[in-house]
Fold:
Amino acid sequence: MNLPFLFAKRYLFSKKSVNAINIISSISVIGVMVSSAALIILLSSFNGMEELIISMYSKFAPELKIEPQKGKLFSTNKSVFNELRSNPNVIHYTEVLEEKVLLQYANRQYISTIKGIEPKSLNKNMGDSILVDGSYQLLRDSTNLAILGASVQANLGISMQNARDLIQVYSPRKGVKNTSNPAEEFNIRSISAGGVLRYQQDFDNLVITPISFAKEVLGEYDRVSAIEFYLKAGTDITLFEQDLQKKLGADYLAKNREEQNPTLYRNVRVERWVVFFILTLISVIAIFNIVGSLTMLVLDKQKDMTVLKSLGGNNSLIQRIFFYEGLMIAIIGCILGLLIGAIFTYIQSTYGIIRVEEGANAILDSYPMLSRWSDYVLVFITVTGISGLVSYFSAKLSVKELDKLKTTD
Structure:
């Protein structure tokens, strides 16, 4: 049986001759416990926010998107696109035509982005979750409808309860300049407002219309900006994307959601790790309580160490005793901290005890939390690793000081 471990366990749980040592040891355990709990709560809260942000983005962004390698528009008159449309694993397939336009409603004007899509590609089940008003459709009795982003609706002052006026959409005609009548320089079409999207920064400036309407406004009848589609549940998106890219060749790019908006995913991850690193540095301060605990214990057990040396024990054995002592303090504190963090995460995610201030955010009622086993492993390795280093050097220095005291005596 490991002799240093037995001594360390005995010293940790036995009553010391100086009561202050028990108090300092308890403070060390509490310090590690609080640090571990704070780290796991932090990671769980970032997981929750990351999940929320990405899920909101995913409601608007397609699973896969095809764009030209160069330029803004491309022709879909190729066999690879016809094969893709008829692929049994592909659902909600649509060609997309997207460009800046000028909108006018009553006496207000606003520059927006028109996004023309195929009306049949709309996922009807998604409508209630992404709309705040109106209906999630682009055609009503052969009448074109527009789904507006939140900023478009707000800047034009459109009320869905009284949207009598049509929205005028202006786009410059290609190849027409300096005419006597300025109105001839623009394609002008009218459309009714059908619904309003929930606020989402990347999409609140959009006006979604049928692609036939967008083609008329933009004067582009043979080319599109992109192709967007979703895959059936259970389809390997990565493998499908790789096979599709091979078929498309170098002239086109197939992008998954992360590749469509790399900045969003990168920012979410970078913020998470920066805050984790900062909190880890703060935790080091709490972990250094172990130094004081071991120093006091070495002084308290000075006679025991003398006896142990007389029985053949060396400095390496004594050093390992106090190293294991510090490591046990760290492990006990870390496990308790992880349990507290897990309990808090469960309570917050289930009951939402910490709520968002009323009126501050229309999307959240309470702060989201999400546990991941990888985070618990990461926190345990981080805390015990730092504590192990602190314990090792503290034990080494304490044994040297013990030798100096003996020499002085």
Q: What stands out?
A: The mean pLDDT is 83. The first helix runs from residue 3 to 13.
